[in-house]
Structures are given as structure tokens and as C-alpha cells.
Amino acid sequence: MDWSQLMVRALEEGSIRELHLYQVPVLKNVENWNQVKEIGKVDFRGKHSDYKGAIVQYGSNYFFLPNARIDALSVYRKWNFKKNLRVVTEAETKKKTG
Fold this sequence. Notes:
Blueprint: H1 3-12, E1 15-17, H2 18-23, E2 37-45, E3 50-58, E4 61-66, H3 67-73, E5 86-88, H4 90-97
Parallel strand pairs: 1-5
Antiparallel strand pairs: 2-3, 3-4
């Protein structure tokens, strides 16, 4: 299963695995921010880093957008995040499968 299919399935369920969250690239700059589609907000403190922001879609790819960038762009664009995404930790994943 490829990366985009994993993301679609996870986001339809309203959650994303911690391992997958670490692999989502950060969206830094685009030509037209109005083409960025909001998927869901993320607020997660992991072992190695904090994720406070949102998962967005630009084109056919998924990205993480930090809160600082969302706040900075809110002057130019209205954001409409309808859901919060739950982050499934690796410990929870091991309990389910093990």
C-alpha cells in the first residue's frame, strides 16, 4: 500500500499513527495558499518533537502545517478545520496487534 492510501485511510478514521506523523513533510511555501485543503488539527507531544498544527492537502500530497504558519497566514486566508485528528501512539498500536 502506498503512502497516499495509508494517509487517506487513516484520515478517514480521524486518526493518524505516530510513526506516520513523523514522516509527513512540513509545508513551507506554496504559490497559492487558497489551494491548500484543510484536513484536521493535530496537537501531539511525542518523544522527539511536538506537533501542534494541522494536516493539510496540497495537490495530491499531504503535509503538516505548524500553528505558527497557520496564524501568520490567517491574515490572508480563512482556515476551517472541522475535526481534530487523534494520534495513535506506537504503544497503543502494539496493544492492538500483540
